[in-house]
Design brief:
The structure is a single chain. By secondary structure, the chain is mainly beta. It has a domain of 50 residues: OB fold (Dihydrolipoamide Acetyltransferase, E2P) (Beta Barrel).
Length: 83
Amino acid sequence: MTEPSTTDYVPIACSLHSEYELAILHRQPLHLVWSESNVIHDEVMLPLDLKTEHHEEFLLCRSKDGSIREIRLDHIRRMGTAK
């Protein structure tokens, strides 16, 4: 039996998950808007991978300054391809 989840994570739509996977495969930079600790972030990021930890899903991505970020998928408010 699986242990019940104690997180407030809300799973995203499968179609959106697929869009992230395609962006990773094609190395397509994404323009992301997400919230984290009551701060709204608006950046172009290069998606690297998806991971699941403690029943939560994250997008691993590289910012323009080269730093690696983990963004919880249900915190992303808007996503589009970067120009």
